[in-house]
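note to self: dont lose this again. the chain is below, predicted strucutre after it. 44 aa total, dont forget to put it in the shared folder this time
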Amino acid sequence: MYLRRLYDLPVLSVAGTLSITSHDFYVSFFLQISISMQLALFGR
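---
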């Protein structure tokens, strides 16, 4: 679980960077939704 949390940090930063630099709104929206779902399921 500790490794999982270490893995979540770069994933969140990469998704944030992609959502900022990406011109496709739907791609960034999907990334944010999927990562929030992962945090909700595995972040406990």
